[in-house]
Amino acid sequence: MRGISMRNANRNKSHIRAASGQATVEFGIASVVFFMIVFGTVDFGRSIFLNAQLHSAVRDAAREGNVGSANGYRVNKTTLKTRIANAWNSESRTTKPRPGLTNVTVTVECIGRGGCISPLTLTASSSVVLE
């Protein structure tokens, strides 16, 4: 058996270093694309969640205004605006903030001086801000 000469051993080491450098560059390129897809998917899911939260909040506030005016009392515009930002728990009779709806812009259009009576129009919009 012949031993490996020093010249061949150095050539093999430089080949290994070049291959590991190539793998590092390939990983850097592929990981950027991978992480863009992953974080883009997470951000898209978050925007859909916030849209569903806002839709549900407006529906709850509109129902409260409609039921209140149908029962003969006037609903305060401020109450309707706070119902969009805060969820009402009827069992514990408390409110808690809705996630992601702290910066909601709400307009309430209705007939009545002291409060709202039918017809009632609620419009809400939210700018998605990373918190």
- Main structural class: alpha+beta
* Major beta sheet, strand line-up: 1-2
The largest sheet is: 2 strands, antiparallel
> What is the tally of helical segments?
2
Mean residue pLDDT: 78
Distance between the termini: 68 Å
From the spread of the alpha carbons, the general shape counts as rod-shaped
Strand content: 15-25%
Order of helices and strands, N to C? HHEEEE
What fraction, in percent, of the residue positions are helical? 55-70%
What are the low-pLDDT stretches, counting only 5+ consecutive residues below 50? none
Number of domains: 1
User: Could you tell me the radius of gyration in angstroms?
Assistant: 30 Å
Give the strand tally. Answer: 4
What does this structure look like?
With 131 residues, the protein is α+β, with helices and mostly antiparallel strands. It has one domain. Helix content is 56%, strand content 20%. It is built from two helices and four strands. It has helices at residues 6-70, 77-85, and strands at 86-89, 94-97, 104-111, 117-126. It has a two-stranded antiparallel ribbon with strand order 1-2. Strands 3-4 form a two-stranded antiparallel ribbon. Strand 3 (104-111) and strand 4 form a beta hairpin. Helix 1 (6-70) packs antiparallel against helix 2. The termini are far apart.
